[in-house]
Amino acid sequence: MDVREAVWQQAESDLTIRTTDGRIEGFIWEHAQRICVSSAAIAELLGMQPSSADRDVLAAAALYQDAAWVVQFVEGSICRADILAKPLSMVQREISADKSADALRDIFAAKRLESVGRIIREAGGRKTTNMTAQVVADATSLDSIGPLALFQMIHKQLEDGRAIRSILETWDRQQEYHFWPARIKESLRSEPVRRIARQRLEALSTFMNALRIHTHAEDLTEAAAQSRSKPVPFD
Q1: Whole-angstrom Cα distance, residue 84 to residue 15?
Q2: For residues 189-215, b (16+ Cβ closer than 10 Å) or e, as one string?
Q3: Among the listed residues 170, 172, 198, the one whose alpha carbon sits nearest the alpha carbon of residue 183
Q4: Can you tell me the distance from the alpha carbon of 6 to that of 197, in angstroms, rounded to the nearest whole number?
Q5: What is the mean pLDDT of residues 150-177?
Q6: What value does the mean pLDDT take over residues 34-42?
Q7: 59-63, 79-83, 173-177, 199-203, range with the lowest pLDDT
């Protein structure tokens, strides 16, 4: 088993929640996988050419930055609705870094293990000069823009006991205050990644417009109005 496969296997075990009733919840693990894949793609997009060992470190940091969510949920300091609801705090990044050091100590040498922890910590800071941390930060920010943002939006609304229309109201407020363009500009460091983010935002906008139409049955109402000119007698 190579290093990356070993990291992936260990991370899947550590980032999957197993409930007391035997259920397996993999949404944190799924999120971590996306960040890992996106981080590798962004590094390539930006022309970075890391060695195989550096790619292993990047993958480990991208996966394990989410470890704090699992640690805190299992110990009961956060509830399910809190998970992925907001960016990781610096305290949480410390928890994630500590978890990675413990989980990966038999996979990485000490120096590379320190690099993993440093990337996890610095990915939360706007002023970091660590290119690998910047890549993980951009991958994380990009994941919350576009259609993928809808999952978290729905998750939060359902936990709060709200309905679909509240999602549309949230979207309308975001549009009114130009929330997403500002988010793209402020949270992403490179223009190539911002272009991808704008494409994702356009895809989300298309979906939200369709959701509005379907929620208010506008398509059905329009079809019914058109049928009035061609009345069909009831038998």
Answers
A1: 13
A2: beeebbebbbebbeebeeebeebbeee
A3: 198
A4: 31
A5: 82
A6: 97
A7: 79-83
**CB within 8 Å of 95: residues ≥ 6 apart:** 67, 68, 71, 72
Are 139 and 35 in contact by the 8 Å Cβ rule? The answer is: yes
Question: What's the rounded Cα separation, in Å, for the pair 188 and 206?
Answer: 22
Residue 155 tokens read as: 């998750």
* Residue 233, helix vs strand vs coil: coil
**With contact defined as beta carbons under 8 Å apart, do 144 and 152 qualify?**
yes
Compute the distance between CA of residue 78 and CA of residue 23 in angstroms, rounded to an integer: 19
Amino acid at 85: A
Tokens 């079809």, located at residue: 223
CB burial of 140-149 (b: ≥16 within 10 Å; e: otherwise) equals: bbbbbbbebb
Output the six-digit token pair for 72. Answer: 């805190």
* SS3 category, 87: coil
Count CB neighbours of 109 within 10 A.
10
pLDDT in tens, 83-95: 898 999 999 999 9
pLDDT tens by residue, 179-207: 999 999 999 999 999 999 999 999 999 99
Q: Give the pLDDT of residue 233.
A: 64
Domain ranges of the chain: 1-130, 144-217
Portion of the chain with pLDDT greater than 70, in percent:
96
Q: How far is it, in rounded angstroms, from Cα 150 to Cα 130?
A: 30
| DSSP 3-state of 58 | helix
| Token code pair at residue 231 | 């009345």
Only one residue has tokens 């990337």, namely 119
